[in-house]
Design brief:
By secondary structure, the protein is an all-alpha fold. It has nine helices and no strands. The longest helix has 18 residues. The radius of gyration is 16 Å and the shape is globular. The protein starts with a helix and ends with a helix. The N terminus is likely disordered.
Length: 204
């Protein structure tokens, strides 16, 4: 018999694959854990920079690769974000924040697809907010305490990417465990598998 939460996750992914519809936010109850002062300081510094999402490239080839990614991904995202300017602005910011945190853009896209269905103002039953379903306690721990800012696109993506990077570091690069910790379901397969399945769609 399939566990109810697994059924919810699989149904959410299937709905996006088959219909392009946006599922409800299904973020878990991510746990607030004690942070060492040095870790809190490092995370706060990672969050604080207000630099606009302007990518820099070391070569023409790298820039062309980015532009091809942007065009391809924008076309795939059209069903979920129909307005071109909004879609491109979102993807430019996502790419910048993913690269800044040392994350794969397809992974961040997969996580957002599962967590919020690409809804900017999504709120889960656990109180997580925005695209990457950031829990409000993070605004207090490493931000300025303003929970409303978690609905700002760059702020939400910045928090989400920095938090996922933190969990990857805590779990020594184990993506399965890091994703579980992000969702508050560490050690269970349903959520990491759902994110990985969504990630594959953005790599194809």
């Amino acid at each position: 018999m399939t566990h109810p939460r697994r059924r919810t996750l699989l149904a959410a992914v299937a709905a996006v694959v088959l219909t392009g519809r946006q599922p409800p936010a299904i973020a878990g109850a991510q746990a607030e854990e004690p942070l060492a002062d040095a870790v809190r300081t490092a995370l706060s510094a990672a969050i604080s920079s207000a630099a606009p999402p302007r990518p820099a490239f070391t070569s023409t080839e790298a820039r062309m690769g980015y532009l091809r990614w942007l065009a391809r991904t924008s076309d795939r995202l059209k069903r979920r974000k129909s307005e071109l300017h909004t879609r491109v602005e979102f993807l430019e910011t996502l790419w910048y924040e993913a690269q800044r945190a040392g994350l794969e853009p397809a992974l961040v896209l997969g996580l957002i697809q599962v967590e919020s269905g690409f809804r900017k103002y999504a709120i889960s039953v656990a109180g997580a907010r925005g695209y990457m379903q950031v829990m409000p306690f993070w605004a207090r721990l490493i931000g300025d305490g303003d929970v409303a800012r978690l609905f700002h696109t760059q702020t939400n993506l910045r928090f989400g990417c920095v938090i996922l990077r933190h969990y990857l570091d805590v779990e020594r690069g184990d993506l399965f465990l890091a994703l579980g910790r992000y969702n508050g379901s560490r050690g269970k397969a349903e959520y990491p598998n759902a994110v990985q399945a969504a990630r594959e769609q953005w790599l194809a």
